[in-house]
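Inverse folding, one chain.
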């Protein structure tokens, strides 16, 4: 329930309904007809995504976004959530969907044991029918026993939330400029050696439980990354 409310608040921030400040908790409680605790959990999700700042005694204010681009990747929560317009559509073309046993090199990247069984998903993603990125992602079968074709073709993270109550709580992100290999360039319609933005992520849920590793190459025009840092010092 609170995730649905969080998503609705995010949509209202993106479309300008909430452009300066969120309504009070009491107003949101009345609007969504839920408990104050549910509203607080929803606000916490939005806050973690870097869209809000809290002013003591005054409430939650909307952070100004750094660009009008419809393809800003929000790294504040660590899942690479796109901050494109709610009217935009993100779709997928699956290249590979199978189970593998990770090699020693792959295991080191994911910090798991050699030969760990993983779901492997390779897909090209499109934003409004224009190529967005090439994504290689991996999910340990010990954490995600079942991964469906429908989920792979749509939103894997939504499936994990709904099926296993898995939500990302922390991540490690690495952004770089990389030259495309021939295998990467072909599905992206690019030339080998073309330099693009790349993002690798380790995603964790619950008590630091690893559930996903991904590496993506972005070719969408105007692609940017956004990160919001909060000062947690008590001084």
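Residues assigned per position:
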């Amino acid at each position: 329930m609170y995730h649905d409310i969080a998503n609705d608040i995010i949509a209202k921030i993106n479309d300008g309904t909430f452009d300066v400040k969120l309504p009070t908790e009491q107003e949101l409680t009345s609007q969504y007809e839920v408990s104050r605790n549910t509203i607080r959990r929803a606000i916490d999700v939005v806050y973690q995504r870097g869209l809000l700042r809290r002013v003591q005694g005054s409430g939650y204010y909307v952070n100004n976004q750094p660009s009008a681009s419809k393809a800003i990747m929000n790294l504040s929560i660590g899942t690479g959530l796109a901050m494109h317009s709610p009217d935009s559509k993100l779709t997928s073309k699956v290249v590979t969907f199978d189970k593998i046993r990770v090699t020693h090199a792959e295991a080191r990247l994911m910090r798991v044991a050699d030969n760990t069984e993983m779901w492997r998903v390779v897909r090209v993603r499109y934003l409004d029918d224009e190529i967005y990125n090439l994504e290689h992602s991996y999910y340990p079968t010990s954490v995600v026993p079942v991964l469906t074709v429908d989920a792979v073709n749509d939103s894997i993270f939504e499936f994990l939330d709904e099926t296993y109550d898995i939500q990302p709580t922390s991540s490690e992100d690495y952004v770089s400029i990389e030259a495309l290999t021939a295998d990467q360039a072909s599905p992206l319609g690019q030339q080998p050696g073309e330099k693009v933005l790349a993002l690798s992520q380790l995603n964790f849920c619950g008590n630091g439980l690893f559930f996903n590793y991904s590496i993506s190459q972005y070719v969408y025009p105007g692609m940017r990354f956004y990160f919001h840092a909060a000062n947690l010092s008590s001084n």
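The chain has two domains: 2-62, 72-226. Residues 2-14 form the longest helix (13 residues).
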